[in-house]
């Protein structure tokens, strides 16, 4: 899948959940609303994979959100592994999701591991910040 192309609802979701895009990240990307921290995390990975900086900024908490965001078109994000989740459900106001995201950049392959914090305000979930694990 090339960047900047929205998958169809019948294609597998780029977040590698195994679900179809129309039943996974598609509705979250369209509305900006996720039912929990994990679904927001998956939609943000999908946004990186397809080059949707708008979704990333919309779902970034105002206290830590940058003014703008430029995504590197040479980086292809192709797999997301969820390693841990704490809270972040329908009755929580905060949550943590730890993940490892895999990428290719030219001939180089690598991964990034992060423990991300999320908050829910006025019924909407937002990414706050994350601690990148050192390797």
Structure description:
The protein has 135 residues and is an alpha+beta fold. Helix content is 20%, strand content 36%. It is built from 3 helices and 4 strands; from the N terminus they run αααββββ. The chain has helices spanning 25-31, 37-50, 53-58; strands at 75-87, 94-105, 108-121, 124-132. It has a 4-stranded antiparallel sheet, covered by helices on one side. β2 (94-105) and β3 (108-121) form a beta hairpin. α1 packs across α2. The termini are far apart.
Residue share in helix: 10-25%
Q: How is the largest sheet built, in terms of strand order?
A: 1-2-3-4
The biggest beta sheet is recorded as: 4 strands, antiparallel
Q: Which class best fits the helix and strand makeup?
A: alpha+beta
In terms of quaternary structure, what is this?
single chain
SS field, number of helical segments = 3
Radius of gyration: 14 Å
Topology as a string of helices (H) and strands (E): HHHEEEE
Stretches with pLDDT under 50, minimum 5 residues:
none
Q: How big a fraction of the residues is strand?
A: 35-45%
| Residue-averaged pLDDT | 95
Terminal CA distance reads 29 Å
Shape summary: globular
Count of individual beta strands: 4
Secondary structure topology:
Layout: H1 25-31, H2 37-50, H3 53-58, E1 75-87, E2 94-105, E3 108-121, E4 124-132
Antiparallel strand pairs: 1-2, 2-3, 3-4
Helix pairs in contact: 1-2
